[in-house]
Amino acid sequence: MASTAPSWRDQSARRAEQPLISVIVPTRDRPTALRRCLDALAAQTVADLLEVIVVDDGSVAVAEVDCMVALHPRARLIRSAGRGAAAARNAGVQHACGPVLCFTDDDCAPRADWVERLVGALQRGADAAAGTTISGGGALADASEIVAHAPAAGRLGDGREIVFAPSNNLACTRTVFDSVQFDESYPGAAGEDRDWCARLRAAGYVLCLEPTASLVHHQELTLRGFLRQQFGYGSGAFRFRRRSGERRRLEPPTFYTALLRSGFRHSFGVGVFVTAAQVATAAGFTLAWAAERKNGSAVTDASSVAT
Predict the structure, then answer these.
(1) CA-based angle 118:186:119, to the nearest 5?
(2) Cα(158)–Cα(125) distance, rounded to whole angstroms?
């Protein structure tokens, strides 16, 4: 692909005081990972066109986060009240100046041309673009990536248009984001990106895959943390289905079969963890469903008493 940098640099020369691309990075108590992410963003091929908005979503290690951001002249730090990834991203955009927005997470290290490749996809007509996420290594992290990207299996049209992309590797125009923001009622990093992608498509926008826009996702997971993550994905999946009006509670059997095959194709250990992830996800989904039913019954009982 021909470089997209010159046209953006021409615009930057005319508007040198204002960045053209804003990268939003939510963070919480991972200063070492944040530094790796910021170092990678500082090395972008279009670094002179960037601003980086780091949103500290309620860190305890406040001084350490401050220090990491201070090391990078193009980065700015804002504070959020620990309301979750969706609220943090929205807050970051509120402070952003660029007409193009890129989203990643603090434990991700984008390759040097990541921003340039995503911007190129937008210049070619996509309303939003997603790249390729590579696992940082380890069986738990590999299994987590397989599960996280499973909803992205669906392709439309010529195969470049996709139905879903995780929000750690995403870009869109400011105009699109003003129309479709992240739903802040999702409390954790689970389901909010799926909801955003669904509403994006419902609004008539096009989300395209740009496979050359790659980053490495350095997840540091224990087994307990992995299962907690997958449980959260189940809760988020229930919330998404409930709000989107989908009646079916589960994906078709072929979805789960393909997911397990993908895990075991990688390695036996990864396959076992993908299997465990499905159990944890089902538990999260079921408990979220039970909690809603219980709350619904309580509201009905209270109404009966009131009448």
Answers:
(1) 5
(2) 14
What are the angstrom distances between the C-alpha of 128 and each of 100, 135, 146, 163, 230?
10, 23, 22, 11, 26
CA-based torsion, 34, 139, 276, 217: positive or negative? positive
Domain boundaries, the chain: 5-220
pTM for the structure as a whole? 0.84
Q: Report how far Cα 123 is from the mean position of its chain's Cα atoms.
A: 22
Task: Encode pLDDT of 194-238 as tens digits.
Answer: 899 999 999 999 999 999 999 999 999 999 999 998 898 888 888
Render pLDDT for 63-113 as a digit per residue (tens, 0 to 9).
Answer: 999 999 999 999 999 998 888 899 999 999 999 999 999 999 999 999 999
| Euclidean distance between the first and the last CA atom of the chain, given in angstroms as a whole number | 68
Superfamily of domain 5-220: Spore Coat Polysaccharide Biosynthesis Protein SpsA; Chain A (3.90.550.10)
Instruction: Give the three-class secondary structure for 135.
Output: strand
Phi/psi of residue 222, nearest 5 degrees: -95, 170
The residue among 107, 146, 104, 111 whose CA lies nearest residue 129 is: 104
Nearest Cα neighbor of 214 from 107, 290, 108, 95 is: 108
Query: What's the sign of the alpha-carbon dihedral 222, 223, 227, 233?
Result: positive
